[in-house]
Amino acid sequence: MPEEQLVTFGLGSEEFGVDIMLVQEIIRIPPITRVPKAPSFIEGVINLRGNVIPVVSLRNRFGMDSAEETDFSRIIVLEVANRVFGIRVDAVTEVLRLDTDAIEPPPPIALGIDSHYIRGVGKIGERLLILLDLEHIMGGEMDHESGN
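The chain above was modelled as a monomer; its predicted structure follows.
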């Protein structure tokens, strides 16, 4: 049976999943340098072994209230469409396998989050896992820079 392997993380009371093949690494929150005139969802940039990468605040991107950083806060470093960036999350919860037949299309009113950020909802027993479409997380500039 086809399945996906996902990294799951918490953001507020919701649980999200991203394809593990897009995840480069998971790091503690380093100092983040603010960038003037960056879009509001870009928290700033970090230096990761000499590479400067932007960090997206998913809470800001999804219109959620900001939260204090805790010992569980992490940045998930991703590579999507040849671009490397980080997403700040409240906590990384686990790595799991999910049968593709346990994934449903996103509901029409996607839980208060723009539906083009969501590619589906996974069901794991009683849990619902919001599966993110990371192509759109960075906004239009991903399509713009790649010339598409």
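The chain has a mean pLDDT of 88.
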